[in-house]
Design brief:
The protein has 74 residues and is mostly helical. The protein contains 2 helices and no strands. It has helices at residues 5-51, 61-72.
């Protein structure tokens, strides 16, 4: 049985509300993730300063490729 235009509008409005809730949830997750990344970066900086060591290693792309090749060889 075909739906009336009013039924279709109500379905679409419900879908819009659901999508808005989902968008808000994912925006919240992204915000939390950004905050975690900032805190993690601050912790790394503090540890590097406190223990006077380099935790972050700067490797060139060539080094990463060589490491990947070494891992795949039997």
């Amino acid at each position: 049985m075909p739906k009336t235009p009013e039924q279709r509008i109500m379905e679409l409005e419900a879908k819009v509300k659901l999508l808005e809730k989902q968008r808000a949830y994912y925006e919240h997750l992204a915000n939390v993730s950004d905050k975690k990344a900032i805190i993690f970066d601050m912790m790394i900086n503090l540890a590097e300063k406190e223990y006077q060591i380099d935790i972050r290693k700067n490797s060139s792309p060539e080094q990463s490729i060589n490491l990947d090749k070494k891992k795949t060889k039997p």
